[in-house]
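Please go through the sequence line and token line underneath and see whether the fold suits the sequence. See right below:
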Amino acid sequence: MMTLERHIEELRAELRGVSDPRELRQIEAELKAAEAQRADRRRAADADRERGR
């Protein structure tokens, strides 16, 4: 199973090599969604740490 960080890295790498506008938009959307998911996970982890203090 691919980690979220690895997935984001791979999407960024794909963006550097894509020339098709449709594919570019698709990868950008996937990247944006993955980055939002990562931010949500970080917020949840921060909240868990705050509760544990």
User: Anything to note?
Assistant: The mean pLDDT is 94. The helical segments are 4-17, 21-52. DSSP finds two helices and no strands in the chain. The radius of gyration is 14 Å.
